[in-house]
Design goal:
The chain is globular. The N and C termini lie far apart (90 Å). Strand 6, helix 7 and strand 7 form a beta-alpha-beta unit. The longest helix is centred in the first third of the chain and has 23 residues. The chain is an alpha/beta fold. The strands form 2 sheets. Strands 1, 4, 5, 6, 7 and 8 form a 6-stranded parallel beta sheet that branches. Bound molecules: flavin mononucleotide.
Length: 231
Amino acid sequence: MQKSWKAACVLLITALAGFAFAACQPQETEPPAAQPEQDRALVAYFSLWDNAGQPGYADAQTSASVVVHNGQSVGTTGYIARLIGEMTDGELYPIRTEQTYPADRQSVEIYNRQSSARPALAGEPLDVETYDVVYLGYPIWNDQIPGAVYSFLERYDLSGKTIVPFCTYEEGTTDSTYAAIAAAEPEAEVIQSGFFILPEEMPEARAYLSVWLEGLYTLEAQPLGSGQVQG
Ligand SMILES: Cc1cc2nc3c(=O)[nH]c(=O)nc-3n(C[C@H](O)[C@H](O)[C@H](O)COP(=O)(O)O)c2cc1C
């Protein structure tokens, strides 16, 4: 009887110890939510600075504004493109035309209108399939995207991709550019809160961009700085 009582006690203690041990084991945690796959970004941009024949001269004559970035002179749109590339790990792609642009603004305007204008593009063909997001940069020309950007949109099928417009301008309206991009790429999603900035705001560009990009990725309301205008 004493033995069986002891045995019962041992059993009970073993069971309690086992229960306590089990209770002290770390609970199996929920597997972490899958990290969203990092979008692969292309930063394609057109800037007159890259496409005018005589850069130093073109600056004064054509209103292509210039910024010095990492010791290199670049157009304003090229500068914003570089910052976006750095901030998003995106790959830069300057849109270049076969023919160089004239050196004065009036001639550029005429040239842009004349060819109605789909200038032939220079450079290696781009494999757009590699990218999920295309940041598309351009200066406003006569309230529209330059013809070379139309050439780019007509050359490459961006269906299924997200297009994020950004542009430089001096004044006036920028609204119609989203519609033009959407019409050229009907199967792409064109983000309606692009980035717009004036040449004189270049010193603040990085700060404006970081606020804008943060809003873009968290899908929160876009706070508007003086460098950002919603379309
Ligand atoms: C041919 C031409 C037309 C332009 N038309 C406009 C315009 O309609 N509205 C505007 O705000 N700026 C206009 N601009 C100014 C450019 O948008 C501005 O200078 C831009 O920052 C130039 O960028 P980039 O230096 O990268 O080429 C025009 C400039 C050129 C050369």
